[in-house]
Amino acid sequence: MENAALELLRTTFGHPGFRGEQAEIVACVAGGNDALVLMPTGGGKSLCYQLPALLRDGCGIVVSPLIALMQDQVEALRQLGVRAACLNSSLDAGAAAEVERDLLAGDLDLLYVAPERLLTGRFLHLLERAHASHGIALFAIDEAHCVSHWGHDFRPEYRQLTILHERWPDVPRIALTATADAPTRREIAERLALEDARRFVSSFDRPNIRYRVVQKDGKGSRALLDFIAGHKGESGIVYAFSRKRVEKVAEQLQLAGIDALPYHAGMPNEQRAANQRRFLQADGVVMVATIAFGMGIDKPDVRFVAHVDLPKSIEGYYQETGRAGRDGEPAEAWLSYGLGDVVNLRQLINQGEAGEERKQLEVRKLDALLGYCESTDCRRQALLGWFGEAHEGHCGNCDNCIDPPESWDGTEAARKALSCVYRSGQRFGAGHLIDILRGVATDKVQRFGHGQLSTWGIGADLDVRQWSGVFRQLVAAGLLEADVDRHNALRLTALATPVLRGERTLRFRKDAPRSTRRRERAGAAPMIELAPEAALRFDALREWRATTAREQNVPAYVIFHDATLRAIAAADPGDLDDLAGIAGIGGTKLERYGEAVLQQLFDVA
Ligand code: ADP
Ligand code: ZN
């Protein structure tokens, strides 16, 4: 069995070997056993059910919540010569009937289906007949965290998927997800009746992603533009908080000459679909989006994910950043945030409809994310720690490891800030408080007589930026909270008392001045450098790929990944045999594109 799996991996998928635990997972499911697979985005989950489906008799049924993703996966599989299809609401009746006929005739290896479709009487009946005639190879439940209430993508239909196990207990099931903290994990096993399934928990580390967090400096999109300038011509995603922000940021990028498109739920469907298609198919498009975008975006060569507003939780952040660098090549995750973000999110939680328990959970999640942002230690260690995974830190590929930030004893400054909040009546925002501390006699200061306060001018030793950092970190640490109903006036919480009494000391992160940020950017991990002639070959291949993709109306990466093209360009194979030896080229692709690729190389030479 193992040899058969490896053989298929090489001939059909063109990969030289298994990654991580793929071999064990494939063997487990192909052998008829259930499996629960936790693997980070880009880890290679698809193969874990695709291979066993090919190895076993009958068709593999894949439950996936994402129609866009299905289409892409099916397309990619067909390119490999695998008989794949999907059934979802985007298909007309004729096309759906054809898929059903193929299934019953035993002409399908893999069938992707949305959960609500799967649960219909009609489809269950179809499965009954398929099972009786050619067998069902397996049930794969993708994005399995959708079954969990605590997760962030709850789908009620997922809870009914236990019906598969009840009706067809002899068919192995494999549930897969990339998001799973301990409670979500437990809930998946319980809700899908997979307590006895073998568990495969991979490391969630994504070593090729470089993490970086910067503080907003009030200069609008400047920092973002600087960051994107380091990724010229590359695909990326910029996440923003609201529809309005998305539109604004997209426009700013476009004005700066960047090929950027907006994406949010408020746009007309057609426009949204067109933008998504362009992002997937063209090289180097930057998508500016709300988090409505991305689940199921399987583009492997996304080189950066930027958050211009604070995400809601570490899980969300990790999943969103995980969309960068699925192909394993260097990629960057960049987050900028400021006091305003903290205030906004806290406000959103407070005003939400959710019950008290849920709100508290959300507050805890936000606090954990803020802790991550303000941390002076290895980011990777903090992220993995949140998923219960130990990492000794000093990863060498996050901002804090590359350029260790300084911290300073902020106890004195914190006491000044906190007492200024108290003495001015807990009715003012950070801007005004900073004016008082620094002794700036604005109209507002005069009007309220704040020049008479004992805290007037006691903070002239720090500049505005430094004081903003102090207030941001005090809010982040929960010593101050913003009052939504009073123009975000800051007030003390119980946590402030020990500091005011001199019973607790505080250390703050020293925010990096702008010049260091530039240096960091210049140090972004480079791609494997190609020699000049190889670079020419690479460009020619990319151009050929773009044309071919357009002709077939499929995303470029479905034809070949960048990494494969780069490997071809570097190796410069002279014939089909040499070409076949390159990773990423399976039998069907060799047959389909081999000659054309050799022709490109010949033309450039
Ligand atoms: P996930 O669903 O876990 O996010 P995918 O199944 O989409 O990940 O795989 C991510 C990328 O890794 C894909 O581009 C895939 O072709 C590649 N990949 C998966 N397994 C292997 C392997 N054994 N060798 C080389 N590349 C692989
Ligand atoms: Zn690190």
From TrEMBL:
Keyword annotations from UniProtKB, A to Z: ATP-binding, DNA damage, DNA recombination, DNA repair, DNA-binding, Helicase, Hydrolase, Isomerase, Metal-binding, Nucleotide-binding, Zinc
Cofactor needs: Zn(2+); Mg(2+)
Gene Ontology molecular functions: DNA helicase activity; hydrolase activity
Family matches, as CDD domains: DEXHc_RecQ, SF2_C_RecQ
Catalytic activities: Couples ATP hydrolysis with the unwinding of duplex DNA by translocating in the 3'-5' direction
EC number from the UniProt entry: 5.6.2.4
Keyword Amino-acid biosynthesis: no
Domain HRDC: 531-605
Pfam families found in the cross-reference section: DEAD (PF00270), Helicase_C (PF00271), HRDC (PF00570), RecQ_Zn_bind (PF16124), RQC (PF09382)
InterPro entries named in the record: DEAD/DEAH_box_helicase_dom, DNA_helicase_ATP-dep_RecQ, DNA_helicase_ATP-dep_RecQ_bac, Helicase_ATP-bd, Helicase_C-like, HRDC-like_sf, HRDC_dom, HRDC_dom_sf
Enzyme class: isomerase
Domain Helicase ATP-binding stretches: 26-198
PANTHER family: ATP-DEPENDENT DNA HELICASE Q1 (PTHR13710:SF105), DNA HELICASE RECQ FAMILY MEMBER (PTHR13710)
Family: Belongs to the helicase family. RecQ subfamily.
Name of protein: DNA helicase RecQ
Originating organism: Novilysobacter luteus
Gene (name only): recQ
